[in-house]
Write a structure and sequence with these properties.
Layout (H helix, E strand, L loop, with lengths): L7 E4 L5 H6 L3 E4 L2 E7 L13 H19 L6 E8 L5 H12 L5 E6 L10 E8 L8
Parallel strand pairs: 4-5
Antiparallel strand pairs: 1-2, 2-3, 3-6, 4-6
Helix pairs in contact: 2-3
């Protein structure tokens, strides 16, 4: 019986919370990439203010940077999870998700949660990718 092992790469965003809480923005294990729940938080408050779609755009910018560091692209994403403090924001945040994923179409779940890490955060997104899973051009 052989045992498979995966090389591991922890990817940091530089957040002050990463060493305190003990997490990485993303982890690559072999060809698998797992991106932690990502928000638009900043020292000055949520980037995007009270606009859930603007927060989602900032989140996807941050996630894109983590994927790139891991050697992946949005095309490699196979699953996304969207957490909303108000499900009423689903249509606008979903439209941003569609701008990013268009024909890629990863699996998706969107749920309403009671709160996120700070009261001004409206959206948190996490995802999984498999490097090499990008759809081939037809």
């Amino acid at each position: 019986m052989s045992v498979s092992t995966y090389s591991r790469q922890n990817i940091s965003s530089g957040s002050a919370w990463e060493p305190v809480v003990g997490y990485s923005r993303a982890v690559r294990a072999g060809d698998f990439v797992f991106v932690s729940g990502t928000t638009s938080s900043s020292p000055d408050g949520a980037v995007g203010g009270a606009d859930a779609a603007a927060q989602a755009r900032e989140i996807f910018t941050r996630i894109g940077a983590a994927l790139e560091q891991a050697g992946a692209t949005f095309g490699d994403v196979v699953r996304t999870r969207v957490y909303l403090t108000s499900i009423a924001d689903f249509d606008t945040v979903g439209a941003v998700h569609g701008e990013v994923f268009g024909e890629i179409r990863p699996s998706l779940v969107a749920v309403e949660v009671g709160a996120l890490a700070a009261p001004d955060l409206l959206v948190e997104i996490e995802l999984d990718a498999i490097i090499g899973a990008a759809p081939s051009a037809a």
